[in-house]
Specification:
about 220 residues, mainly beta, elongated
Amino acid sequence: MNEWLANNKPSWGSNWAAGDVMYKDLDGDKKVNSGKSTYDDMGDLTKIGNSLPRYRFGITLDANWKGFDFLIFMQGVGKRDFWDASPYSVGANTGLWQSAAFKDHLDYWRPATDTNFGPNPNAFYPRPLFGAGSKNFQTSDRYLQNAAYMRIKNIQIGYTLPAAIASKIGASRVRFYFSAENLATFTKMNKISTLKQQEETGDLERFILFRELFHSV
């Protein structure tokens, strides 16, 4: 880490050590900062993603065979970048009483001498620092996530009785069906951010929607 800091020293934080995020100097001055934060001097800032949803799509497939019918509707976004530095996402790297702890947060950096959970040098999360942990979550591509997704919005499976049978019970058409809403979502986002992620519309609707199963005649 000391060798890295000699040529890539961030202008924020202190007590850098193994388990911290290693930021890279891009403009060659051996420091990592935002320069004058102007168009002509952005220091080591660079474009790393775009939070706008691109390539929205919807796919509907249906089939019928001898009274049986099947329909599936899928929708999603082909490309979107998402940066999440909320307490739910960063684990034990905010204030002691504001930090969150989920099973996923156990994937944090631990040294070879750790006797609690064992060594974890290739962890997803940096070492836990609570209030001092914000230094490891400056906006960077280290925790930028691919927010593209595809969701199975609806599946229907049905069967329609032959007209001759339906007429015997005084009906012109009888169909039995099973339907499922928001059955599954496929995404590369980690579970914590998936729970926090807002829909691409910008509403406060959760990325994970309620799953609904029902049947009817």
